[in-house]
Design brief:
Oligomer: single chain
Shape: globular
CATH class of the largest domain: Alpha Beta
Distance between the termini: 46 Å
CATH superfamily of the largest domain: Mur-like, catalytic domain
Radius of gyration: 22 Å
CATH architecture of the largest domain: 3-Layer(aba) Sandwich
CATH topology of the largest domain: UDP-N-acetylmuramoyl-L-alanine:D-glutamate ligase
Structural class: alpha/beta
Largest sheet: 8 strands, mixed
Number of helices: 16
Number of domains: 2
Length: about 475
């Protein structure tokens, strides 16, 4: 059997396990697996990242900064946009099919042993986490950047002890698993802050901040807060992104170009910078500032696929993975700030277990029309149900149901083309959003090479240029 066929077979086996949305938060299965594997999660230092929104972008920025400093990095993030291999990245590139298969075949006997010992078999996400640890230890990498799956305290990535714990903004999400209040959710996410670690905290609501700070004190962690110990000193719009001045824990970094849109991404950049500065400190590299040129070079080459990503032009089509009200509010603010559409049509598909009315309410002021559809997930809300919810917020005349995502995009593009014909280039656009799965499906339909993500630029590679709506139209 050739490697591509075996890769597809392995992926089917992994996906057939308990899915990500069927979460049984517990550490016992994962702790047993890594014990059988020789504790690969302890092979090198860990930067651990949780929060409600911004985790993956922050992980990608942290990874870019580490690699700019000559460190070999392993990055584990979720969910994926197109390929399952995107979740396990070494030195900026998803692991190749051969290595993915080899890691699975290495750990699966131990996974089955754990399955036999517990009432619930190991899940899709637990198996991938074990594979990531094994790959990072075998490479070996100098540092792991781990994104939490759900919560923190009982997430299976928490068998690792992060020397730096990053907590991005906390909002209401995953209430069935984490609780119905900000305080309850913050308590779960605070669980990644380990004794003696450095906790890098993004801007938080007062309720979340109080919980996080109390936990940090209890475990004698050092705390670095956005807006106090570090943060964004200034930001200006720039072609294809924004120009920042960042105050880190060890210095101030001017003229930092970030090829991503929105205030939220500037905050993510500040957190990533503070995390790498803190990591440099615990790694015994003294207390001086990082090399400013390397910082600028790393940020200039950052990509965050599926996060306000311009995927097509004429008309401009943007895909975005926002899937809760707080994330959609940040997306809407970034589009209003960074683009100049007079008409923007949304293509929307979300999971039925999300706060769909809350997400739609954040979108309503931004959109001229909305085309509601479904994505490839079995959890996707039926377009008819979505249309009923949307009509209550947008009014029936602005809501257009479509049974399939490709049809929905066609409808939205037609509406955008009409706006361009009426008002000129750059005036009409399309935003495809509502879920990471929706963004990934759109990338498969519209992106090059079936949407597969290329390796990320390193310090020696030129960055790919992002474009504003005006440039693309």
């Amino acid at each position: 059997m050739d490697i591509e066929a075996r890769m597809h077979e392995v992926e089917r086996e992994i996906v057939s396990r308990r899915p990500e949305h069927s979460v049984d938060l517990a550490l016992d299965r994962m702790a047993e697996l890594v014990g059988l594997l020789g504790d690969p999660q302890r092979a090198c230092p860990v930067i651990h990242i949780t929060g409600t929104n911004g985790k993956t972008s922050t992980a990608r920025m942290t990874d870019a900064l580490l690699r700019s400093r000559g460190l070999r990095s392993g990055r584990f993030t979720s969910p994926h946009l197109v390929s399952i291999r995107e979740r396990i990245v070494v030195d900026g590139a998803p692991v190749d099919p051969g290595r993915f298969v080899a890691a699975y075949e290495e750990i699966i006997p131990y996974v089955r042993l754990v399955d036999e010992r517990h009432p619930a078999a190991m899940s899709f996400f637990e198996v991938l986490t074990g594979m990531a640890f094994a790959i990072f230890a075998d490479t070996p990498v100098d540092v792991m950047v781990l994104e939490v799956g759900v919560g923190g305290r009982l997430d299976c990535t928490n068998v690792a002890d992060g020397v730096v714990a990053v907590i991005t903004p906390i909002a209401i999400d995953h209430t069935r698993l984490l609780g119905n209040t900000i305080e309850e959710i913050a308590e779960e996410k605070a669980g990644i802050i380990k004794p003696g670690a450095t906790a890098v905290l993004a801007q938080q609501s007062l309720a979340a901040a109080e919980v996080l700070l109390r936990h940090a004190v209890e475990v004698a962690a050092t705390v670095a807060r956005e807006g106090a110990e570090f943060g964004v000193l200034s930001r200006e719009q720039a072609v294809g992104g924004q120009q920042l001045t960042l105050r880190g824990l060890r210095g101030t970094y001017e003229d930092v170009f970030l090829p991503l849109f929105g205030l939220h991404q500037a905050g993510n950049a500040a957190c990533a910078l503070a995390a790498v500065e803190a990591f440099a400190g615990v790694s015994g590299e003294g207390q001086g500032a990082l090399d400013a040129d390397l910082v600028r070079e790393a940020f200039a080459q950052v990509t965050s696929p599926g996060r306000l990503e311009v995927i097509r032009r004429s008309p401009t089509i943007i895909i975005d993975a926002a899937h809760n009200p707080a994330g959609m509010a940040a997306t809407a603010a970034a589009i209003e700030e960074s683009f100049t559409f007079s008409s923007l049509t949304g293509v929307f598909a979300a999971s039925g277990d999300k706060d769909v009315p809350g997400i739609l309410a954040e979108l309503e002021p931004l959109l001229t029309d909305i085309v509601v559809t479904r994505n490839s997930s079995e959890r996707s809300l039926d377009p008819g149900q979505t249309a009923e919810l949307a009509a209550e917020i947008f009014g029936e005349d602005r809501v257009h149901p479509a049974a399939r995502l490709d049809d929905a995009i066609d409808v939205a593009v037609t509406l955008a083309d009409e706006a361009v014909a009426e008002s000129g280039p750059g005036t009409g656009g399309v935003l495809v959003t509502g879920s990471v799965i929706t963004a990934g499906d759109a990338r498969r339909l519209l992106g090059p090479a079936g949407g597969e993500l290329p390796p990320e630029p390193s310090a020696s590679q030129p960055a790919r240029h992002s474009f504003t709506a005006a440039e693309l139209s």
